Amino acid sequence: MLPRRSLLEGANHPEVLSELIQQAETVLRTYQPSWSDFLSAPEWEEAEARLGELEELQLRSNGGFPQAERRCLEISRVLADGNEAQEDNAAPLQLLALNGNFLFDPADPSTIRQALLNEGHQARDLGDVLVRGDRGALVVTRPEVAALLLEQRLQVRTVSCSFEPAEWTQLPTQPQRQKRMTTVEASLRLDAVASAGFGVSRSRMAELIRQGKVRLNWHPVSSPSRELKVGERVQLEGRGELVMESADLTKRERWRLQLTRTL
Q: Would 100 disulfide with which of 32, 91, 96, 159, CB 3.0-4.6 Å?
């Protein structure tokens, strides 16, 4: 049995982590690797940090492409010789193209995801949604859910959509990379720092924050004036993540910032 109490102590997502602990215990008994349902970024990050400390377990996540935020987590047992119990256990993922004319009624990923949830599909069965301009989107999901969607039409506000199978080559294939930069700003306001880090005008960044497109440590944030602290993580939908590594006050009382952006 795993040390459930210590693993759950102070957890941000105790219900999800508890299910994963139960799944891990089954893996340890049966020696059979197992994939979880789709997890949000803060959920799988917490699971990897806590379960990954256990020497008898091997973890890996997959969301269909390197930058995926929603991922399934594979849990496998490490054998006495240090090898995994089984290799090449493919992630249960399928990619679909959602086709519709969004020219006059643009939709973002959250709108499309909500339309799927409104049809009775579960969040645990849905991965990332990547919008393709006014043509529709790419949706990562589970094979059994994909089979259902291929037989259905989806109403996204005023747009009637259909699904068809898509190729994984249509998704981003480049591995994540980091870009480090130094900037001097008048304040530590979220809109100012994120504007410099993501290369977006400050007025546009403030608009994106108010629209709910920006998250702070994976939590929605709506105030452009919110001051950032060193180590906090800013996520911008479709543009990656920004971390403020350090903030030093200059002689002219401006802030010299060291930023790291993950793309």
A: 159
The pTM score is 0.86
CATH number for the 178-262 domain, one of 3.40.109.10, 3.40.50.720, 3.90.180.10, 3.10.290.10? 3.10.290.10
CA atoms within 13 A on the CB side of 251: 0
Write the DSSP assignment of 65-93 as a string of letters.
Answer: STT-SSEEEEEEEBPTTS-BS--------
Which residues fall within 8 angstroms of residue 14, CB to CB, at 6 or more apart? Answer: 8
Q: 205 burial class (0-12, 13-18, 19+ CB within 10 angstroms)? A: buried
Residues in the chain: 263
180-to-197, 229, 241, 246 alpha-carbon distances in Å: 9, 17, 12, 12
- pLDDT single digits (tens) 27-44: 999 999 999 999 999 999
Question: Alpha-carbon Rg of the chain, whole angstroms?
Answer: 21
Residue entry with tokens 């010299």: 256
Rounded-to-integer distance, Cα 88 and Cα 76, Å = 11
Smallest CA-to-CA distance from 261 within 179, 175, 174 is with 179
- In this prediction, residue 84 carries a pLDDT of 54
